[in-house]
C-alpha cells in the first residue's frame, strides 16, 4: 500500500483535533499537545513572536495560535503567508481565561499545506455581497457566508428531525415530470434532443424519439405525488429541489430552490396550521440553540432586531384570521389613513404590502390568513360550505410576507372532477390523483414551505441569491 | 370561521391516536376509549360479530378491530366495505396478551370516511412487482412497498444524522448546471426554448436567448461544487438528486436517482474509507433498530439471509485490498478453475463478476479496492507516487457490487492542470476548481454513495424501480 499523509479525519486515529472540539471540551485540552489543520484568517508578525488566526470550518470561532521566532525554525516562512493559506499546526493548548479568547495554541511546528497566491480575492477588507456573488466558489470562507450556509445546513436537519420524530415518512418525489402540478408556473423542459435537429413528425415535435417518449419538465411541486404516499403512510413530507422558469429578477425569486411539502391524512386546516406553527417554532429554537455564534453575528451585522424577533415568534401563538376578516382589517386601516398601492376588495389576491401590514403592523407576529376566495386559489383546494371560499391558509411572517402556503385538499371526487372540468384542465392528466378519491379517500391537508425564504427569515439576509450555495436566476447558471 | 372535521393530527387536541402509538405504549391504553383512523386491510363478517384489520400507515403492524352486530347500528354497512376503504373508529382498547395480536379495539362507532370502489386494483391477492409498477400511486399500500419506502425514509434520516453528529455541513449543490462534472455521463438538457422553434444564429443554437443565456443540463454529480464548500467548512456532504441520460435498461440503473457525496478537507484515502465504513455501519444499525418489523418481512419474503448478512457487516471490519493485489487474487481464482467472462489483466476495469467474486467469494464481506490504474479513473483523482495509479477506492458489497466510489482529490495545481490538458478537457470549464488549488489547497478526499443501491442492499430488493417512489427510466416518466 502507498504511504498516506498523516493528517486525516477525526475518525482515523484521532490524529487531528477540530477547533470546535477544543471549544466544546476546553478544560480537557488544557496543556495538551495537539495537531490542528485549517486556513489563515490573519497573521500578525510582532518581530520576536507572532499570531496566526486559524479557522478550520468546524465552527464559527477562530483559533488563536502563538508562534515564537526563537523556537520555530520556519518562522519567516509562516509570517510571510497570505490570508487563505492552509496550515497544519502542532502545539500545546494554554487556557487563557483572562484574555479575549479563552485559549491559545503555542505552536511547536507549523507546516504549510497550501499557500494562498497574492491575488486571493477574499482579502480581509469587507467585500460587497454583489462582488462575492461573482466568487461563489470562495465566498463561504467569509464570516457572513460561513454563517449563512451553516444555518442553512442546521435548519435543513431540524426540518428532518421535526418530521421524523413525529413519524412522518420522507418521500423523494420525482424531479423530472410529465405532468404540470398546478396548472400554473412556467416550467423548464427536459430533453435529450439535439437542439439543432429536433425531430418532427407531421409538423410537430416527435416526442416518441425523446428519452422518456413524452414531453417532460422539471417539477414545480411534489405535492400531488406526495399525496399518493399520504394515502398509505398517513403523514409524509418531501424535501427537495423545485423549479420555476419565471423571468423575474427579484430579491425573493430563484429558478431553482428547495421546498418542504408535508401531506397529512385525516387532517383538516386547523391541523395543518398546528403542524406548520409547531415546525417553524421547532426549527427556530433548534437553530438558535445550535448556532449561537452565527445568530449573534447576524444580529450585530445584518439585522439588529433579529434574535429578539425570533425569540418572540417561538414564545407566542401565531395569529389566525379569515381572509374575509383580513379584508375588513385592511379597509379599516385605509379609513385610518394607511394607503395601499393595490386595491383592497373582497376577492382580490393579497399583495405583499397587504400581507406585511397584517403581520407587521396589525398582528405584529406570524399570521395565518385562511379561507380565501376559491377563484384565486388552486384547483385541488377544498371547497368550503359557503361555496365561494376554499380551506386554504397562508402563513405570513414579518419582514418576508408569505413563507408557507397550504390547504385542505379536495377529497370529494365529484367536487374535484367538477373543478378540473370548470377550469378547463385535462382530466386525463389527473387520473391518478382522482384515483386517490375513489379508493379510501379521506380528509387531508398539506403545505409548502419555501426553504430559502425560511433561511432568509432565520438570518435576516434579504436576497435569495445569498442563501443558495450556487443560485440559479435568469442568465445565471455559472459555478 | 368555518366548522372543521373533528379528525385532526395528534398535535391538534390529541383527538386521534396513531396505531404506532398504541403499540409503543400498550399498557397505558388498556381499557381506554380512543379514536383511530386508517384503511381497511381486510374485513371478516362472522354473522354476529366481525373483524376489521386496519392500518393507518404509522407502523408496519395492523390494528385488529372487533365489531358486534348488536351494538353497532351500521354493522351491515361496515361489513360490506371493500379493502382500501377509509374508516374512523372509536372504541375501547383491550389488551389480549394470550392471542396472536397483543390488543384489540372494541368498536363503539365506525364511520365510513371514504369507500373503496369495487375495481380497487390493490386486492388482497399477491400482485406481481411488475404489475405494481403500473400502479405507482397505490403500491405503497402493500406490505412490501410500505416497508421499502419506510426503510428508504429512515435510511435517509440516518445519513443526515451520521454526518450532522460529526459536524459535517449539508450543502445543496445545484441541479441545473452549465458544466459537466466528470467529462463522462450523458446529460439531460434543460431549456425554455420552444422545441419546435429553437432559435439559431450563424447556423448554431442561439443560447443567448435561452433562460440562462447558456447551454445547461441536469447535474450528474455535486462533487466539484461540494469541494468549494469543503475548502471552507472542512467536512461537508450533499444529498440530492442526480441524473444520467443513459439508454440502459438494467435492474440497477435509473435516469434520476439520489446521491450522497461527502467531501473532507485534510483527509486522505484511509480517512475516506474509515468514514464510509462507519457511515454504512451506522445506517444499517439505525435501520435495523428503527424498522424491526419491516426488516423481518424482507428477511422472510424477499431475501432469506438478509438480517444475518447485515448483522455480519455491522460487526466485522471491511476488507481493504489494492487493485494490484485484487488482480492477483482473480488470476489465482482463474488458475483454480473459476471462469470469468471478461479478461483479468492489470489495467482493465473490474467488471461486476470480478467485484462480486472479490466481495462474495474471496473476502465474504464489504471490500474496498484501492489504488486503481489512472487510465480508468476520473481526472480529479490524486496521482500516486508510482505515477501510474491514483488514490481511488471503490467499496464493493455482496449482492450488489460497487456501492460507493471515492478518492483523494488531486490537490496539486500543476498535476491537476496537466491532467486536464492531457485528457483534452476544456481548462476554462475548470477555472473555479483550479482556484481551490491556488488559494489554500490541502489534501482532501470524498466519495459518492448511490442512495438507491443502499436501499436495495438494506431491503434485499433487486430492482431499482422498486425502491424509487416514482422511477424514471428510458420511456418512463409517468406518475
From TrEMBL, chains A, B:
Family classification: Belongs to the class-II aminoacyl-tRNA synthetase family.
Keyword Ligase: yes
Superkingdom assignment: Bacteria
Organism: Fannyhessea vaginae PB189-T1-4
Cited InterPro entries: Aa-tRNA-synt_II (IPR004364), aa-tRNA-synth_II (IPR006195), aa-tRNA-synth_II/BPL/LPL (IPR045864), Asn-tRNA-ligase (IPR004522), Asp/Asn-tRNA-synth_IIb (IPR002312), NA-bd_OB-fold (IPR012340), NA-bd_OB_tRNA (IPR004365)
Membrane-spanning intervals of the chain: none
PROSITE patterns per the UniProt record, alphabetical: AA_TRNA_LIGASE_II
Subunit structure: Homodimer.
Name of the protein in its database record: Asparagine--tRNA ligase
Domain Aminoacyl-transfer RNA synthetases class-II family profile: 122-469
Catalytic reaction annotation: tRNA(Asn) + L-asparagine + ATP = L-asparaginyl-tRNA(Asn) + AMP + diphosphate + H(+)
Subcellular location per the Swiss-Prot or TrEMBL entry: Cytoplasm
Entry EC number(s): 6.1.1.22
PANTHER family associated with the record: ASPARAGINE--TRNA LIGASE, MITOCHONDRIAL-RELATED, ASPARTYL/LYSYL-TRNA SYNTHETASE
Keywords, in A-Z order: Aminoacyl-tRNA synthetase, ATP-binding, Cytoplasm, Ligase, Nucleotide-binding, Protein biosynthesis
Main location: cytoplasm
GO MF assignments: asparagine-tRNA ligase activity
Pfam families found in the cross-reference section: tRNA-synt_2 (PF00152), tRNA_anti-codon (PF01336)
